[in-house]
Structures are given as C-alpha cells and as structure tokens.
C-alpha cells in the first residue's frame, strides 16, 4: 500500500513511464511509442521515478 501511495504522488509522465517499463514490461522503444515520446525521454522519466520512489520509501522506513 505504501508503494502504491508513493507511486500515485509521482508526476504523470514519471508514473506512466514507470508503469509501462516496470509493471507492463515494455522495453524503451515500446514505452516511447506508447507515450509518443523519445526513448531518451523514457529513460529520463524512469530514472527520475526510480530515484523519487527510493527517496520516498526510505523516508518512510522502507529500504528495498
């Protein structure tokens, strides 16, 4: 529940990229096509989402 709560706080682009890459298992090209963006943009949004989630979860006492 904590992870879902923190994912919902991500900006939309980060949340969508994270969902497609990590939960739907799209590769970068598939994610870029689905989001109508570049692969570089997908990499950036996924990286930012991962770092933001890690920070948020650590602040709540979870270390994954």
Can you tell me about this structure?
It is built from four helices and no strands. The two termini are 14 Å apart. It has helices spanning 2-8, 12-23, 28-35, 39-59. It has 64 residues and is mostly helical. It is elongated, with a radius of gyration of 12 Å. Helix 2 (12-23) packs across helix 3 (28-35) and helix 2 (12-23) crosses helix 4. The mean pLDDT is 95. The longest helix has 21 residues, at 39-59.
How are the SSEs ordered, and which strands pair?
Blueprint: H1 2-8, H2 12-23, H3 28-35, H4 39-59
Helix pairs in contact: 1-4, 2-3, 2-4, 3-4
Largest sheet data: none
Task: Compute the number of helices.
Answer: 4
> How far is the first residue's CA from the last residue's CA?
14 Å
Using the alpha-carbon principal axes, give the shape: elongated
Q: Give the class from helix and strand content and strand pairing.
A: mainly alpha
Count of β-strands: 0
Uncertain ranges = none
Query: In percent, how helical is the residue content?
Result: over 70%
> Any idea what the radius of gyration is?
12 Å
User: H/E series, N to C?
Assistant: HHHH
| Mean pLDDT across residues | 95
Strand fraction equals: under 5%
């Amino acid at each position: 529940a904590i992870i879902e709560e923190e994912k919902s706080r991500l900006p939309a682009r980060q949340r969508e990229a994270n969902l497609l890459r990590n939960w739907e298992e799209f590769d970068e090209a598939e994610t870029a096509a689905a989001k109508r963006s570049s692969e570089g943009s997908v990499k950036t949004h996924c990286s930012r989402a991962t770092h933001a989630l890690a920070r948020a979860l650590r602040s709540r006492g979870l270390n994954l």
